[in-house]
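Database export, one record per block. Field names are fixed; values are copied verbatim from the stored entry.
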Amino acid sequence: MEKKYHVIVIYSKIFGNDILKFYEKSRVIELRKFINENFPFAQNMMFFSHQCRIVFLIGEGIDDFNETLDKIIQLLKEFYKQSCFLIGISSLHFIEDLNKAYKESILAVGYLNHNSSTLQIQRYDELGILSLFTDDKGKTNRYFTDNIIAQFIQPLIDYDKQNDTYLMTTLRMYLNNNFSQSKTSELLYIHVNTLRSRLSKIESLLNVKLKSSNDLLNVQLAIKLYEGEIFH
């Protein structure tokens, strides 16, 4: 059976974007030796550099992918004596589609670089619908995301701040519990009638009907975009 692979792209500002400076700063040959000496399973993966980035190729079926990733990150931190790395991980692809996998990893790194100040690792698969609003460099369509959050999120945030309420929390909980009023009210420690009153207020502020599939899609998308730290 043909094997599939993850492409993992490692980027750091210390590498720079000039190819000559990259080889000077990244010390790729020394890094390869360091990894081979300190990671007994290194022979089960491929490692090279491309476009001023360090790239790992790891096949499916590895015993613990997350543990392997953690070990790679640990060795990078030890070798470079710093921890400022952005790491993009592709979905699994066959060997003939590795160019697509590399592009996915680059997009994931670009997303981190342009949109997040806290995350250091991004799996392409976990971008989900966010990948529809990013270009091939990971930059988001800010005009679209600004507008959809302003329409479907900001009114709740403003109202909560002005009135010391919890409408945003209520909406998240309601959506996360598959629109179950009983489960949501139980988790929020409020009466179900109080929940219904809050949901009615949410609909009024956002000018939506939560039973409308189109309105619900817009609200869920807005929350996803907002929680994706596009504005942070």
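Remark 1: The first helix runs from residue 19 to 26.
Remark 2: The beta strands are 4-11, 45-50, 53-59, 86-89, 93-94, 121-123.
End of record.
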